[in-house]
Amino acid sequence: MGCANSAAFVAFCTGLWVSNPALVQGQASGGRPGSDCEVCKEFLNRFYNSLIINEVNFTPDTIEKELISFCLDAKGKENRLCYYLGATKDAATKILSGVTGPMSVHMPAGKICEKLKKMDSQICELKYEGPLKDTDPKELHLISKSIMAEPDYIEDDNPELIRPQKLINPVKTSRNHQDLHRELLMNQKRGLAPQNKPELQKVMEKRKRDQVIKQKEEAAQKKKSDLELELLKRQQKLEQLELEKQKLQEEQENAPEFVKVKGNLRRTGQEVAQAQES
């Protein structure tokens, strides 16, 4: 059976104990005061628990935004950790991908901190000054409990591994939805986003546009030289003659049969008279 995206199933599939269905306890941390990377483990565990409770979509981009927002309330050593990760405005480096990528596949905080330690050893040198001094008392229920060992479900050499899979949203995968989303983005970039304007305002704007177009056409007419005006007159005259000729042909085609026969006899008589005279 595959793992679903709900908080309870994610916690079950990652080998965790859930003490309260409403408050899912996150990954096994091993983040007790005095252990290695204790600030990193405790902070990332609380962050992971907040993602589970808020039912956040586990993608690297979403996790990065949530982590930056989560770091706004960090204080003391945890704020320093956010600085090392690059989640603060004054951060000199940025290694957020070392957190967002592994956490998107629900890697335990302990293993994430081990990877971060290789990137920056200062991360695991941070320690709390007292027993969870920097932890908000209101968030004590979110601290993970080390009842079970950390599951080694990140190892790639396990063929029987059941990995959590992201459910496909049929709406977002729809071709019509994608085309509509792309069109809305293009219109927004061009400043053509739909606006709820009154009908009178739309009519007035259309009339104003028509007036501007007409003024431009009149200005273009005035700028034409005498030669261009003469050529334009001849073109109009030729078009008028062509229309008259076409109209005459249509009248002859639609004329009664006896009129056509009479016209043919008249032309034949004229041809015979001309032949006799010559």
**N-end to C-end Cα span:** 109 Å
Mean pLDDT: 75
Regions with little confidence, pLDDT below 50 for 5+ residues: 1-34, 140-149
What does the largest sheet look like?
Answer: none
User: What structural class do you assign from the helix and strand content?
Assistant: mainly alpha
Determine the number of helices (DSSP H or I, runs of at least 4 residues). 10
Task: Give a concise summary.
The chain has 278 residues and is an all-alpha fold.
Describe this structure in words.
- The protein is 55% helix and 0% strand.
- It contains 10 helices and no strands.
- Helix 2 crosses helix 6, helix 3 crosses helix 5 and helix 5 packs antiparallel against helix 6.
- The protein is elongated, with a radius of gyration of 40 Å.
Q: Which terms would index this structure?
A:
10 helices; 278 residues; elongated; mainly alpha; disordered N terminus
Give the SSE layout:
Elements: H1 7-13, H2 38-53, H3 60-70, H4 76-85, H5 97-104, H6 109-119, H7 175-190, H8 199-222, H9 226-253, H10 257-277
